[in-house]
Amino acid sequence: MSGPASFFLCSLLLVAPHCTEVATQEVQPDPKTPCANWMGGAPGYPGHNGLPGRDGKDGKDGLKGEKGEEGPQGPKGDQGEMGVPGREGPRGFPGYPGQKGEKGEGSFVYRSAFSVGLTERAPHPNVPIRFSKIFYNEQNHYDASTGKFLCSIPGTYYFAYHLTVYLTDVKVSLYKKDKAVIFTYDQFQKNNVDQASGSVLLHLSSGDEVWLQVYGEGDNNGVYADNINDSTFMGFLLYPDLDVH
């Protein structure tokens, strides 16, 4: 070798052991590299990220955490179905009396009634018996002068009579508008005082007349009355016709 080249080679031989010792102390190269145990190369670039590994096994449940704070109130839900009725509760105390109500309109009360008795003995046959002893005749619907009851309020009426029988037989009839409605016959027993009676329900129109009279030619006229024996006739309105009033 010529002069400069020989000088450069010798310098490398002298410096190489020293560099190797220093490299050994500072950095240990990868034994797979070509410069192993001689001289380390420059650091390489970072490699690419590897593929994700497989999922590991599920871990054990951790300890129960503390109770969290109460969240905000949610919206009101739909109304549920009605439940089964419960038991009846105890009876409460009576309440205080309420205020007195206003007076209502009075309803009209229909009244028609009479009750009369006989004062004369042996009334005439085939004519109305005139009962002149007045027990009740407030509406004056019975006429004592004629012995007839005159209907002023259409409706249903009840009539009854109780007659004392003495001296001879009795046969009487109750008339409505010149027509006999019912008959009563009683046979007199000697040395005795008997009773004959009858009753009926009648529907009357305004203007109808009702009366009692001895039936026949006078042989059955034993109707009797004195200070201790009465023969009576009565009648009264049960209820009026609502379609008329």
Automatic annotation (TrEMBL):
InterPro entries: C1q_dom, Collagen, Collagen/C1q_domain, Tumour_necrosis_fac-like_dom
Database matches in Pfam families: C1q (PF00386), Collagen (PF01391)
Residue ranges of domain C1q in the record: 107-244
Endpoints of the signal sequence: 1-24
Location of region: Disordered: 26-102
Subcellular location: Secreted
Regions of compositional bias (Basic and acidic residues) in chain numbering: 54-70
Protein name per Swiss-Prot or TrEMBL: ADIPO protein
Gene that encodes the chain: Adipoq
